[in-house]
Design brief:
The complex is a heterotrimer of chains A (97), B (487) and C (491). Chain B is an alpha+beta fold and 487 residues long. Chain B has helices at 2-11, 62-74, 174-191, 231-250, 296-305, 310-321, 325-334, 337-345, 350-358, 360-368, 379-390, 396-409, 413-420, 428-441, 443-450, 457-467, 474-485, and strands spanning 12-23, 60-61, 78-79, 86-89, 99-102, 109-116, 119-130, 134-138, 150-154, 161-167, 203-213, 223-228, 258-263, 268-274, 284-285. The relative contact order of chain B is 0.09. The relative contact order of chain C is 0.14. Chain C is 39% helix and 13% strand. Chain C contains 16 helices and 11 strands. In chain C, helix 2 runs antiparallel to helix 3 (49-64), helix 7 (221-231) packs antiparallel against helix 8 and helix 8 (249-255) packs parallel to helix 16. In chain C, a hairpin with a 6-residue loop joins strand 10 and strand 11. Classes of the chains: A alpha+beta (97), B alpha+beta (487), C alpha/beta (491).
């Protein structure tokens, strides 16, 4: 199954990566090779095998509902590229989700 | 408009499904210990986890899981024996990790139902996820998202546990849509799992609406109306969509599957993101959280702990109180059902209790802007006053004065009656002198009564009442007057 | 005067505890060593001399007031830059986090500090731990102390190079596909990947959440075990943390006895693509273990050959989601915010500028593997094969106590040799990946120098989950009998 340049472009947009044409070309050809290699997993007959999402045999790990101290607001905002009125300042948003 | 809508509804059947988001009333957030108190200063209830800082990890809040199971049980759902959280991947600035921890194909609760006004509405699923932060849009003219220069984000709300309740497309009118949300809200309130304040955003609705020709089975293309945030808006949004879609369909146009935004002011919807270019959310099991496997013992103990739900309670009260369905529903909505019950328990009849709590006392509560239960009038007070009215010791007018006194002074009805001398006088001996005086003082009126104008006796009764500062038993006075004047 | 930088962590800790050397002296000696040689190696991204000396002084103060010191108090350590350190730069080897100072400590960081371990600084790594050579660091590669033209392995090449070159007796790495063990093997040091869930991931900047595991780097097996004990154990802040005591790894390292143990040699990990000198040293190591009284059998794990493709679907999928948070909104780099661009454009420009090529490749690959339409064939299928690989381990461990293999098919390769060929680079992790997928414990211990190039070779020991003690027992027994240590050439 080959990956097309158009698919790579779509995935880049989905992943918020502004790739140049040159990068897209290179990425498409590299991914094609890598996919060719990883497709080998398809050789394994695993139809009725349960998938593993977690390797630890744990369930029901919960935290009691207790409020704990939060970060000081200065600490919360300490890494912000821009802030204003105690809030994170971000560029204009085009559409509501 | 109504006429037009009726006309439309004659040809088209609305098909409505609801997705309701409920913020749970836990003390701490879904995956971290930050407080959930509403209205705090921006970003003061945040930590590495709910800010999505690199390296931070979620740990699920036990109470949130428990509340979700309670909701599922109250909605007659099946509770999963094993399920996982999943990541829903999409970029948005109010979502700190650019994925939302949610549930995908393994919801905690599924396949339930709820009865609304005699109709059964299927519940497809109830799942648990985390809320997002809130953006403030700056610049431009309107403070709205479009045309803003930039936005300011507050993550206090990010990570508050959010339950999503999804119905099957079983609703076929705006009224039932509203009634569904009303019933759901009452259930959630009864469970004590959320403060269900629509105005604070703790209960939010997305409404999916489509039309199909009457008699048709296949579904039409639906539009999803987002963020419909009051009961009235739910009804208006459905009405508007029905009208809009019918107009399009009848003009030969097709309905676009899309997200639409509801506008409170105009009651209309406008188009948002088209679903045809919808995101691929790339869901996958959340590796940072281990599966949830509620033991059957736990589920059964939660089932046993369920409070009596509004529908069961209403049915029981209709039977026990002998009051009509509608009355019980009204009392329930007014929040006085418990007071009525306690009043009946204290000795009043159901009708008396209903009349006082829905009538005079409700009016006083509304005027004071407090719940009826906070007036300072107890069910025992009401039962006592009702007994005095039925024994003839109080008129209904006097009874209202007694309640006013109770509210003003904090004293009981008997103390108020004694202090203010409000007891009704029915003793004929005590009334006779006043009646004779009134006849003597108003010979012209007395003559009219003698001449057969019985209605004129009212003026004499009024004179007696005035002389006795309202405490005379009006019926007795009336009888005494007529006896004396041979009417 | 003893050269303090040549001593083991265990020896340094006892010198500090007895007062024969102060923790400040020990820290200063290592800071001096860093100043002298790190220009050549570039193992550190950030040296925190002030913090280290203050932590050392606190240990000395505690000793003087008669407090009982923890077993590694006063011992210096090189911390991989993937762990959050409050107020100290944490970059993950990426431009996108340049200058970020976390407002909190990782649990591993916290436990090190609480144990009086002196954190010298943050070490270089492949960007977001994606790589096998440290060449993917945005801040330039680290060099191998054995040959400055060669890579120190990766992603944790910085910590291993620092330990191998005596800049620190201890290091911390993280292992997702082999990032602790493979650098250990090619730098002639010890590196252990604890059982998944054995060491808290809280504050470890995630690459692939279901695989990432922090662990110790050291020059001796005992030192690694001591460090493992300090950082291991249950953490309520990590839902995947196992609520059991740390396996008795220190006792096992001291016991160092394999007599009566059954050791399985993984049949699939030899042959084509394996450097002859590496295989020769491995066979000798197996013979040593046999000579020590272990029974050695060959074991087949047929699905191990699918471990690499399985890994390269699961890890990129998880990383595509984990790395979404680096979006220029709350921390880190922001590019192109000129007041007119939309949030979407600024996010995309920032991520394009802030991530290196390997990270971008994996994000795209992972997004692809998770897309609707491809999920079942790629991510879903990989998760099923993951189950089969785990079952291979389970079946093997019914018969043997541990499995052994070479840690990596070749010795350290040359800088630049594989940078244009991602698949060749991925092969370095061929033998280490299965334990990451199963969650079991595994470690690499030096087993001499390859006769063909004179560079270090690693012996990998793999143990069942929560039986980390077994691998320490085998590694320590081998270490004692091996004829090592093999010291890196003086720089």
């Amino acid at each position: 199954m080959a990956i097309t340049r158009a698919e790579v472009e779509h995935l880049a947009r989905l992943s918020r990566l502004a790739l140049s044409d040159e990068e897209l070309d290179r990425m498409a050809s590299q991914l094609d090779v890598i996919l060719g290699a990883v497709e080998r997993v398809g050789e394994v007959a695993a139809g009725d095998i349960p998938p593993t999402s977690h390797s630890v045999p744990l369930t029901n790990v919960f935290r009691p509902d207790e409020a704990r101290p939060s970060l000081a607001p200065e600490a919360a905002l300490s890494g912000a590229p821009a802030s204003e009125q105690g809030r994170f300042r971000v560029p204009r948003i085009l559409d509501e989700e | 408009m109504t006429a037009v809508l009726d006309d439309v509804l004659a040809r088209w059947e609305p098909v409505v499904g609801m997705e309701t988001h409920v913020e749970l009333g836990t003390a701490s957030k879904m995956f971290c210990g930050c407080s959930t108190t509403f209205g705090a200063e921006p970003n003061t209830q945040t930590c590495p986890v709910c800010l999505g800082l690199p390296g931070s990890l979620p740990v699920a809040n036990e109470a949130a899981i428990r509340y979700t199971i309670l909701i599922g049980l109250a909605l007659n759902c099946r509770i999963a024996e094993w399920c996982r959280f999943a990541r829903k991947n999409y970029f948005y600035p109010d979502m700190p990790k650019n994925f939302q921890i949610s549930q995908y194909d393994e919801p905690l609760c599924s396949d339930g139902w709820i009865e609304v006004g005699g109709e059964r509405i299927g519940i497809e699923r109830v799942h648990l996820e985390e809320d997002t932060g809130k953006s403030l849009h700056v610049g431009g003219s309107t403070g709205r998202i479009h045309g803003a220069d930039y936005s300011l984000v507050d993550y206090n709300r990010a990570g508050i546990p959010l339950v999503e309740i999804v119905t099957r497309p079983d609703i076929h009118s705006a009224e039932v849509a509203r009634a569904y949300v009303t019933e759901l809200r009452d259930i959630l309130r009864t469970l004590g799992v959320s403060d269900v304040k629509m105005e604070e955003g703790s209960l939010r609705c997305d409404v999916n609406v489509s039309l199909r020709p009457r008699g048709e089975q296949a579904f039409g293309t639906r539009a999803e109306v987002k963020n419909v945030n009051s009961l009235r808006s739910v009804e208006r949004a459905v009405r508007h969509e029905v009208g809009r879609q019918a107009a399009r369909l009848e003009a030969g146009e097709r309905i676009v599957q899309e997200t639409r935004h509801f506008h409170e002011n105009s009651g209309t919807t406008t188009e948002g993101r088209s679903k045809e270019e919808a995101q691929d959310y790339r869901y996958f099991p959340e590796p940072d959280l281990v599966p949830i496997a509620p033991s059957r013992e736990w589920v059964e103990s939660l089932r046993a702990s369920l409070p009596e739900l509004p529908s069961a309670r209403r049915a029981r009260l209709v039977a026990e109180l002998g009051l009509p369905d509608a009355d019980v529903a009204t009392m329930s909505r007014a929040g006085v059902l418990d007071l009525v019950l306690a009043t009946v328990a204290a000795g009043a009849s159901a009708a008396e209790a209903r009349n006082w709590w829905l009538g005079d006392l409700q009016a006083r509560a509304n005027a004071a802007g407090v719940p009826a239960g906070d007036l300072g009038v107890t069910p025992e007070h009401v039962a006592r006053v009702a007994a005095l009215v039925s024994s003839g010791d109080l008129s209904s007018t006097l009874a209202k004065e007694v309640f006013a006194g109770v509210i003003e002074t904090g004293q009981g009805p008997d103390e108020v009656i004694a202090a203010r001398g409000l007891r009704q006088v029915s003793d004929e001996g005590a009334l006779a002198a006043a009646v004779d005086e009134a006849i003597a003082a108003n010979p012209d009126i007395a003559q009219k009564v003698r001449d057969g104008k019985v209605a004129a006796a009212g003026a004499l009764v009024g004179a007696v009442m005035k002389a006795m500062r309202g405490q005379a038993n009006a019926a007795t006075v009336n009888r005494l007057i007529l006896e004396r004047l041979g009417g | 005067m003893t050269d303090l930088t040549r001593l083991s962590a265990a020896d340094l800790a006892s010198l500090v505890a007895s007062g024969e050397a102060s923790a400040v002296e020990v820290a200063q000696a290592h800071l001096d060593r860093i100043a002298a040689v790190d220009d050549k190696l570039h193992a550190f991204l950030h040296v925190d001399a002030e913090g280290a000396l203050a932590a050392a002084a606190a240990v000395d103060g505690a000793r003087m007031t008669g407090e009982t010191l923890s077993p590694l108090a006063g011992v210096p350590l090189a911390l991989k830059d993937v762990f959050c350190t409050e107020g100290v730069p944490t970059t993950c080897g990426s431009k996108i986090l340049e200058g970020w100072r976390p407002p909190y400590d990782a649990t591993v960081t916290r436990r090190l500090k609480d144990a009086g371990v002196v954190i010298l600084g943050k070490t270089n790594m492949d960007e977001f731990a994606m790589g096998s050579s440290t060449e993917n660091s945005a801040y330039g590669p680290t060099r191998n102390p054995w040959d400055l033209d060669r890579v120190p392995g990766g992603s944790g090449g910085g910590s291993s190079a620092a330990v191998a070159s005596y800049m620190a007796p201890l290091g911390i790495g993280t292992d997702t596909g082999g990032s602790i063990r493979q650098p250990a093997a090619v730098t002639g040091t010890v590196g252990a990947k604890p059982t998944y869930g054995g060491v808290s991931r809280y504050g470890l900047i995630a690459f692939s959440s279901s695989l990432d595991q922090g662990g110790p780097c050291a020059r001796t097996v005992l030192d690694a075990a001591l460090l493992h004990s300090v950082i291991g154990g249950h953490d309520p802040l990590d839902s995947t943390s196992i609520d059991q005591p740390v396996p008795p790894v220190v006792e096992a390292a001291r016991q160092a006895d394999v007599s009566g143990m059954r050791i399985g040699v993984v049949k699939e990990f030899s042959g084509e693509g394996y450097q002859p000198g590496v295989e020769a040293r491995f066979r000798e190591a197996v013979a040593v273990l046999e000579g020590l009284g272990a029974t050695v059998v060959e074991v087949s794990c047929p699905h191990f050959v699918y471990a690499l493709p399985t890994y390269y679907l699961i890890a990129p999928s998880e990383c595509s989601s984990n790395l979404a948070r680096f979006d220029a909104m709350r921390y880190g780099l922001r590019v192109g915010d000129d007041g007119t661009r939309s949030v979407e454009e600024v996010m995309a420009l920032t991520r394009a500028a802030g991530f290196g090529p390997e990270v971008k490749r994996r994000i795209i690959l992972g997004s692809y593997a998770l897309s609707s339409g491809y999920y079942d064939a790629y991510y879903g299928q990989a998760q099923k094969v993951r189950t089969l690989i785990t079952r291979d381990f389970d079946r093997a461990f019914e018969d043997v106590d541990v499995l052994v293999s070479v840690t990596t098919p070749t010795t350290a390769f040359r800088i630049g040799e594989r940078t244009d060929d991602p698949l060749a680079m991925y092969l370095a992790d061929l033998c280490t990946i299965p334990s990451d997928l199963s969650g079991g414990a595994a470690m690499s211990v030096p087993c001499g120098l390859s006769p063909d190039d004179g560079l270090p070779v690693g012996l990998q020991v793999m143990a069942p989950a929560m039986r980390d003690d077994l691998m320490y027992r085998v590694a320590a027994a081998y270490e004692a009998a091996s004829g090592g240590p093999w010291e890196a050439p003086s720089l």
